[in-house]
Amino acid sequence: MNYDLMRKQQEELSEEHLWDMILSYQNITFKTYSGLPFTYEVRKGRNGEYTKELWIDRREKSKSLAWSSVRMAFHNIKQTGEIVERPKALGDIRGVTYIYGMFYRFGLIDVPDKVKEKMKKV
Asked: Taxonomically, which superkingdom (predicted)?
């Protein structure tokens, strides 16, 4: 894990640092609120640059998660309490259950103890 990047993100909450974390945590296993494992990757477009779309690998099929959804949840962190009780507390956002797991792993949010048990690192 890139702990320097994580510490920097926690000290200086910014979209740029969040994007760097997104890129550095590709293909790392996360868990959803209910404890289901998933990974993601950010693919490159024809121009060789990242597409700003995360591809969630949960089962046989991949689902896309738009960077705009991640950004929306990121900006909603300020409205939540110290402990984010459930994914929807970050907003009614498509894919928020995955974002919740990522934000917890990144150290951006805290979750209730009962959820921590389900989301323990793989």
From this structure: Bacteria
